[in-house]
Amino acid sequence: MRILIIRHAEPDYAHDSLTENGILEAKALAEYSEKLNIDDCYVSPLGRAQKTASYTLEKLGKKAETKEWLQEFISYVDLSKYKDIEEAYHKQVEEEELKHRHAVWDIVPSYFYKHPEYLEWKGWREADIVRYSDTAERYDQVTQELDKLLETYGYKRENNHYVVEKASEKTIALFCHLGVGFVLLSHLLNISPFALWQGCCMLPSAVTEIVTEEREEGIASFRMLHMGDTSHLALAYIKPSFFGRYCETFDSPEKH
Known about the structure:
By secondary structure, this protein is of the alpha/beta class. The protein is 30% helix and 23% strand.
């Protein structure tokens, strides 16, 4: 089977919708969508993902099932309680009410690369930031729901791979968000989510493609063919959005 993880287009976070540029991105994706050979669609309940999916669904004449577990992956650590990991986070926080709350994946590189446990396939669960938050619990909730969905297509997870109860060549599209997209990928590929959160990016409206490989009869594993493909934007002469990235050089005006 084939899974497409599609990040929402450029977001208007204040209104949980899309910017004008985001609407252009979503429309470009819709025009390209016939080439993706999508069978079934699933979408996050959040407005920016729903809006992104709506153009593709209209183009393809399909409906999508809303899945709560596809909403953005949010887990915070409170630095007012855990002073020993203050060095993990950027010190500039503008909003007073968020002074002590930091997203678990938003770690500065100087801390991250001093702690190799965050890169370990299973060892990340014992890392301080994970122990000080509900990251592992939320991760398990999301991935368990993903496995329930895959089981309906004939793939049952056992011992870190999938037993093929009934082979499928269907393509499913998951319209969701950057953080949760990497949670899904880390589970399917058996790697730490922190490795993806820190080392990879899927720009707004990008398409990531993962397929099963059945090299041994009855045993399927997943392999990623493309991450963050924005071919639809290139065809529409739209420059990919910067959302999800950080500054390329420290003296640039983009987000640090």
